[in-house]
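Table S2 (continued). Query chain:
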Amino acid sequence: MIFRTRKLNLPRLSLFSTLIAICQLAFATAGSTDYGYGEISKSMAGTGVAMPADSLAPAINPAGIAFLGEQADFGFSIFSPRRGYEASSTNGPFGVASGTHWSDRNYFFIPDLGYTRLFANQRAAFGISLYGNGGMNTNYSDDFSGSTLGPGAGVYGGGSAGINLQQMFLNMALAWKFTPEFSVGASLLPSIQTLNIKGVSVFSPFSASPHDLSNRGTDYSYGLGFKLGTLFTPSPFFSAGAAYQPKISMSELDDYKGFLPDQGNLDIPATGTVGIRISPQKSLSFNADVQRIWYENIDAYGNNLNYCTPGGSPCLGVNNGAGFAWKNTNVYKFGAQWIANEKWTWRAGYAYVTQPIPSSSVQNVVNILAPAVVQNHYTVGLSYAFNQRFALNPYFLYVPKTTSSGQNQFDPNQSVDLFMRQYELGASLSWKIGA
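Corresponding output:
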């Protein structure tokens, strides 16, 4: 998007700040973006742009709430990413610490909640939801050495290294049914993100502001975005939906303006999703969604380190400066739902993410901080209805290990492999208030 807000001096005990402290986001599963929102959608690999399932539906497609009644959902997940890198030994002056090293902190707790309600003779709907959009986290200890970049221990020789990025959205949605089969919707998205980077002080010769590069604590950034969506359900057997969220311009992260390009700018990339639902019978549904994430349009995500040369002009923290060199990403999602009876509903899904950090002859070693390389996602889930009003919706996600390989960009004699696998277990309680 389009609106850029100035940095706000909000108290740490504000609603957003309190909840983002609880919402200990680690890596999302499609770069820095989560693969799905709401536990029912997550049990079907994040599908749902054409099949609204709960009050977190505006996070996928705000038009969907026009087809829901009054309900509330309260969800909670435990996310476990296992990530790290492996580097060969080197005698060059710009090598990272060799060996296989895993990031610490393997468990993160992620809440979400939502509420929807119809009005205007059930032609319009309002929804509000709060959820983590995604993030990234690594925390490498300083109990190993071998880097030739810096004199100390850790990945880069600058002590314990890592990054902690967390993003949270408050989604306020309105939807309108133009006909019983067709709705449009829009969401307003007040957004907050926090960032903490450590252990990269050895890159100070490359930085335009070396005092704002590393170990500056947690900084806060704010923005305001929106999401648009449409949903068409011409029959009980078929529906189609689409949603688009433009780039969200965030206020600068001043404490890390020596690391991020454009003096501390880290905007949230645009996303677009289209999808269909096919129901050959009332109890059986199949979903297929395709999502696009435009990382290359954000300097901090898309720019590379190609013009970072020892002794050259600063390349970190400058306009159009170096970033993580991520590629635009497509996410292909497939989900299925079977309503066995009035008590039990079963779900499963599969999602494939095109690689934001593809294997190549060159490896941007900054991505050791952000090894967003996972691709295959397998999900299962169910709903158990206690009665007409209340249901429990557990799910499980498994993402097998994926590796991206290349050569150290600053030391071609050193090979560097990034790897990650993930697990997630969660559940929500749905309350159909109007039932």
